[in-house]
Amino acid sequence: MGNMEFPSETGMRTDRNLPSGIHIVAQARHSRALETALGGSVELVSLEPEEAVSEAVVRTASALVLEVDPTSKASLARVSEIRAIRPGLPLIVALEHADLSLTRTLIRQGVSDVATLPFDVEELVGQLLDVSASLAPSDKAQLALMVSMVRASGGVGATTLATHLAESLTDCGGRAMDVCIIDLDLQFGQVANYLNLKPKTTVLDLLDASDRLDEDLVRDAAQQTEQGMSVIAAPSVIAPLEDVDVDRLLNLLKVARQSFDFVLLDLPANWTNWTLSAALACNEILVVTDQSITGLRQTKRVIELFDVMQVSRENVRVVVNRVGKKLFQAISVGEVADTLSRPVFATVSRDKGELQVAQDQAMLLSQTNRRSAFVKDVDKLAEAICEQVMGS
């Protein structure tokens, strides 16, 4: 096992102009076919489909071709693990038996393209040239971390949590971070209302921009708040959920990640093709629940959905909101973890009515009482996320 570099044959590959730093991770029986044709133009890494790819390979690659065994959860999980380390790394997944459903799922997870096994050299070179063309000198391939706030059901305080988390993330371990929260709850989005914003341009306007969409347009649409973050608001009128074009949405999210240091999505409770695509495009998914029986049942269903979509469990985090004192809480945090068969990533304390008072003044609780247990818990959640930002 390990790295295997091969010299290229004289006269081979001179017309292909592949950039340096391309790594191909595959079983030896597949990589052998590339030895003569590609040779020293790429770095061949011989690994079994379930074996972990070293972080050094991920961090040094300009583009990565990864063999995946769709029957192995460990093999599929490598896609999410690589994206967590390098969100913007051009990634081509190589499959021996590709089907349309799996290919669509991988593309939604941010995979650049899907190659067939055994490798067809000319086809693979074409794919590598295509993804390499997207590498701009300004390093646009380095996309910002994107996290989605998912509510298992309405009324769990996800939007309140999202707005406070966005504000806390603007100071990321002492580093000023340009944070944008995108309100994708197209029918009942409240982010702009909570912050007393009057947006002239909304998410739907950006989606309608289609090919005209660029960083300038996204920046102009994002309203700067007095708390320090930017907001791309949901429309003020109820919009049909089925009207969203998935490709346009994913392009919007990509441009937003090129425009800001961190992107936070506030997703609706209803699941559609595009909301699922948005969640799968994120590096991390925060599933917000409370300690109610109804809330936990819904949360379990959402988590099972991500299991079906083969999202790495390490990238789906459970956040328990409105945690009360154990004496007055029928279900403990430990019982929440047992019920969901998942560890609880973070807990946020129930406030004492101060949140509503602050919201009535179009303010965050952090502006009126920085020492509240709620604000301190949100800051702890932000610190945990910042560790990942600094690491990437």
TrEMBL record:
Residues 147-306 form the AAA domain. Gene3D superfamilies: 3.40.50.2300, P-loop containing nucleotide triphosphate hydrolases. GO terms for biological process: negative regulation of cell division. InterPro entries: AAA_dom (IPR025669), CheY-like_superfamily (IPR011006), P-loop_NTPase (IPR027417), ParA/MinD_ATPase (IPR050625). Keywords: ATP-binding, Nucleotide-binding. The keyword RNA-binding does not apply. One of its GO terms (molecular function) is ATP hydrolysis activity. GO terms for cellular component: cytoplasmic side of plasma membrane; cytosol. This is AAA domain-containing protein. It comes from Croceicoccus naphthovorans.
